[in-house]
């Protein structure tokens, strides 16, 4: 299905301006199928806005976004999701009175509905069950499946959000600060879950915890004031003076 040789995701001179503010300013980036990239940068650097240009929440003001060779710069968020782009959110967006498993079933069914454009009522279909089972396993939630979401920990709720984004079987997953607000132990678990995601799934990860981010990705992109300051492998970024300067004085888990 993927166009041979072409990158999975290609951003060419992508900008998003809010009036005079250049939140994203001419970003050019490529991502191969299955590649894992972290986006680092101080608050306000434009990381989340760049995600929005990819998902379609806020389409690019200028430049182009190609996914699997197709120009999706102006495509709706639904059309992009249908092509295989998924994201998780910084805010919790779950049905707290329903069980972990039912939240996943609803997510899986929502995906099925938008994909095949018909409503399936009654019990869960076989493929839905498989999808839910796989998401529960991958996100280490099997033991919690029958608990209402309000009774699981905050860390587990974040794992569930990740699990829900997997039910659409995406080819690209965007993770916006998946470890934000987690305890050190929950952080370790979240990192383990992310590390264990299928290697065929491409990831873009925004994360303030540099150590956590560098341990999960093949490549790092540093953004400052809407632009890409530099790119490199984790080992190149770790000792980089510019990166150190940007983060100097910032608490690691801010
Ligand atoms: N909808 C919006 N309208 C106006 N300004 C925005 C909007 N969204 C983000 N911004 C501004 O764009 C800049 C980049 O924000 P953001 O992408 O959220 O940064 P980051 O995720 O790197 O912290 C910030 O100055 C922010 O205030
Ligand atoms: Mg952000």
List keywords for this structure.
single chain, about 250 residues, alpha/beta, Rossmann fold, 2 domains, six-stranded mixed β-sheet, four-stranded antiparallel β-sheet, about 25% strand, globular, binds adenosine-5'-diphosphate, binds magnesium ion
Task: Explain what the structure shows.
This protein is of the alpha/beta class. The chain has 2 domains: 1-77 and 172-254, P-loop containing nucleotide triphosphate hydrolases (Rossmann fold, 3-Layer(aba) Sandwich); 91-169, no CATH class. Helices cover 35% and strands 24% of the residues. The protein is built from 9 helices and 10 strands. The chain has helices spanning 47-55, 77-83, 100-116, 126-138, 154-166, 184-195, 210-214, 234-238, 241-247; strands at residues 9-18, 21-31, 36-40, 62-67, 70-71, 85-88, 172-176, 202-206, 219-224, 227-232. The strands form 2 sheets. A 6-stranded mixed β-sheet has the order 6-7-8-3-9-10, with helices on both faces. Strands 2-1-4-5 form a 4-stranded antiparallel β-sheet, with helices on one face. Strand 7, helix 6 and strand 8 form a beta-alpha-beta unit. Helix 3 packs parallel to helix 5 (154-166). The longest helix has 17 residues, at 100-116. It is globular. The protein starts with 8 loop residues before the first strand and ends in a 7-residue tail after the last helix. 38% of the residues are buried. Residues 116-120 have low confidence and may be disordered. It binds adenosine-5'-diphosphate and magnesium ion. Magnesium ion binds at residues 47-48. Adenosine-5'-diphosphate binds next to strand 2 and helix 1.
């Amino acid at each position: 299905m993927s166009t041979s040789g072409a990158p999975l995701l290609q951003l060419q001179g992508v900008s998003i301006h809010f009036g005079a503010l250049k939140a994203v300013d001419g970003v050019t980036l490529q991502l191969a199928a299955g590649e894992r990239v972290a986006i680092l940068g101080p608050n306000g650097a434009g990381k989340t806005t760049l995600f929005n240009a990819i998902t379609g929440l806020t389409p690019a003001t200028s430049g182009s976004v190609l996914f699997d060779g197709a120009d999706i710069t102006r495509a709706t968020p639904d059309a992009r999701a249908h092509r295989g782009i998924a994201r998780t959110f910084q805010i919790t967006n779950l049905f707290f009175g329903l069980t972990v498993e039912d939240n996943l079933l609803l997510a899986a069914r929502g995906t099925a509905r938008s994909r095949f454009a018909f409503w399936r009522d009654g019990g869960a279909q076989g493929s839905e069950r498989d999808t839910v089972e796989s998401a529960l396993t991958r996100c280490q939630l099997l033991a919690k499946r029958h608990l209402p979401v309000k009774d699981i920990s905050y860390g587990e709720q974040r794992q569930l959000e990740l699990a829900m984004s997997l039910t659409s079987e995406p080819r690209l997953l965007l993770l916006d600060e998946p470890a934000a607000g987690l305890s050190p132990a929950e952080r370790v678990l979240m990192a383990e879950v992310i590390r264990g995601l299928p290697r065929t799934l491409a990831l873009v990860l925004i994360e303030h915890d540099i150590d956590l981010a560098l341990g999960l990705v093949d490549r790092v992109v540093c953004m400052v004031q809407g632009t890409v300051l530099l790119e490199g492998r984790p080992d190149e970024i770790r000792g980089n003076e510019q990166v150190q300067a940007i983060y100097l004085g910032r608490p690691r888990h801010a």
